[in-house]
Amino acid sequence: MVFSIKHIFSLVSVLFLSASLTTSVSVQENFAKCLRVNSKLSIPISTIYTNNSSSFTSILQSSAQNLRYLLPSVPKPEFIFTPLTEFHVQAAVICARKLGIHVRIRSGGHDYEGVSYVSEIESPFIILDLARLRSISVDIRSSSAWVQAGATIGEVYYRIAEKSKVHGFPAGLCTTLGIGGHITGGAYGSMMRKFGLGADNVIDARIVDANGRILDRKAMGEDLFWAIRGGGGGSFGIILSWKIKLVHVPATVTVFTVTRTLEQGATKLLYRWQQVADRLDENLFIRVLIQPVNGSQIGKRTIATSYNALFLGSANRLLQVTKKSFPELNLTRKDCIETSWIKSVLYIAGFPSNTTPEVLLEANSSNKAYFKAKSDFVQKPIRETVLEELWDRFLQEDNPITIWNPYGGMMSKISESATPFPHRKGTLFKIQYLTVWFDGDKSQQKHINWIRKMYKFMGPYVSSSPRAAYVNYRDLDLGMNKKNHTSINQAKIWGAKYFKDNFNRLVNVKTKVDPSNFFRHEQSIPPISVKS
């Protein structure tokens, strides 16, 4: 019998697909059998979603924020496991290790480069999604709360406010962040200048380590407890829950947003903001959102700078502070909105004014897009002439935005080595750059090229040696680990940007607690020696 080349390729494709399906099924079946043997509690079939499950796609997409990593061309997991208890997580680690299955761990899905739900360096892989672990227990008497990793920061805020109008927690501005991963990167928010980061206000934790043990702070030891509070997610273990320290907030706080365009002196005002933002009253947080908008002339765009702020106090007191320290803003009583802390959360997050706090219980965000992001830390004010060049670049791009977050206050009082998050004293502000698009991979390369060129342009005007970056704005352009082999020297290129000198201590902790590199991804902390 004579076969055509086309026929041979067709046969090979069928055989390959058949083998692939068999492998996928066998991996899932073996994992499920192992879970039943190793879990202290029964595990419902409904916790495992395979490619053939009707809910697979919706579960995969549920909390993923960056649509770049949901494109058809991006690798997909063999299956998704959604544990219901700590013991299920423990069994998953034991079984994945026993069967040699590569695991990615997801809590909130805001991961900018998708490393919690996509593996571009290793296949096959599975996702361990913690979305069903979202218990929150608030104890006002001790000013603390235990929060499971799958809960969103919005849910945490809501449950605190439900118990007390004068307690809060200093963490993220975006309310659908999963608290498990959020705190592993530091967790900044609008109260950081008063109370520090979320990671600075963690007093205990429960994790599953690489050996499948459930450990609290006492059992894990201070080195590992240090590493998980700012050393980045997916390197040291699986966060099950955090015990957080609540902070006191006034019954009345004040918010405002003041916008200035180029025609209204935006450049000069932003230069002044750079000079004062880190030295303002620590109760005042003023960030700046900068983006192109339609100008007064039809068809012509300009740059708008919006000063978006929270003040922990009354409007009258706020006006006294700004009049003394930042009079150039020309803040008026009409600009100020007095409200409760929980409603200030909604305001800063950008919800409409009539939104009720119950929206914080909606776990998944509907504001998803294709995007690429980068970050910088600034130690000297950026000159007006440089800002004008930056505006020219922004006006060339479709949907760019940059957000400048002030430092100083408590952030300058905490040592660089207190947690792995090192961006403390001497930092004026942090810059986040984003470009957003909506047509999938059609224009993707164009937008990525734009942000890379813009990032290169900003190099001389930001921190150096290293040029620092924020690990929760993960950027794979800075470097990536390789499958089964990671050079410490190569990893240090991006590791020093995220962690400065703390990278060396993180490597030592990793080597001690996970020498075989079970927990790994494109930018995980490598151990000193990695076995294939």
Automatic annotation (TrEMBL):
GO terms for molecular function: FAD binding; oxidoreductase activity. Its cofactor is FAD. Keywords: Cell wall, Disulfide bond, FAD, Flavoprotein, Glycoprotein, Nucleotide-binding, Oxidoreductase, Secreted, Signal. Residues 1-24 form the signal peptide. Residues 73-249 form the FAD-binding PCMH-type domain. It is found in: Secreted, Cell wall. Its main location: secreted. It holds the Pfam family BBE. Belongs to the oxygen-dependent FAD-linked oxidoreductase family. This is FAD-binding PCMH-type domain-containing protein. It comes from Dipteronia dyeriana.
